[in-house]
Design brief:
By secondary structure, this protein is mostly helical. It has a domain at 45-128. The chain has two helices and two strands. It has helices at 12-62, 69-74, and strands at residues 96-99, 102-105. It has a two-stranded antiparallel sheet. The radius of gyration is 28 Å and the shape is rod-shaped.
């Protein structure tokens, strides 16, 4: 009778498979984590711009001769200190600026500082008109009702 040794431990191939599968899972998690961080920074940036806009609205209501939004944003003569507890900045180190009474971010706004990423949907805040349909979806509906064969 031939005795075989009992195998203790794992083979090299089994260990390689475990390491490769673990590396793939870590890579997937890191990609998802990076996207999550980017989205949270963009959301925080939009909330910061909304806060600045609201503070400016309060400033305009309380001040007989208010300065422009650009001067308020730059905090010239410390005019924004009363309305903002601390300096609000973009979490991604972007720079805020004003274009046509819209607060834009150098990182989270579309190229050229266009309006869509800066409007709060459904409102006119940040100088826009809210959501605007850009296609002819109503043309897809027939003006006469159709009936299904009886």
């Amino acid at each position: 009778m031939i005795k075989t040794k009992k195998r203790l431990g794992f083979t090299v191939i089994e260990m390689l498979v475990v390491v490769i599968v673990t590396a793939i899972l870590v890579a997937i998690i890191m990609l998802a984590y990076g996207a999550m961080i980017d989205k949270s920074e963009a959301t925080t940036c939009l909330a910061n711009r909304k806060t600045i806009q609201k503070a400016y609205q309060f400033y305009r209501l309380d001040t007989p001769q208010p300065k422009s939004l650009d001067i308020f944003l730059k905090n010239e003569n410390s005019i924004a200190d009363i309305w903002l507890d601390n300096k609000i900045t973009c979490p991604s180190k972007g720079k805020y600026s004003v274009s046509q009474d819209i607060i834009i971010c150098s990182i989270h706004s579309q190229s050229g500082g266009s309006v869509p990423n800066n409007i709060i949907p459904g409102t006119t805040n940040f100088g826009g008109g809210g959501f605007v349909a850009d296609d002819d979806w109503e043309d897809t509906f027939s003006s006469t009702p159709t009936t299904i064969g009886v």
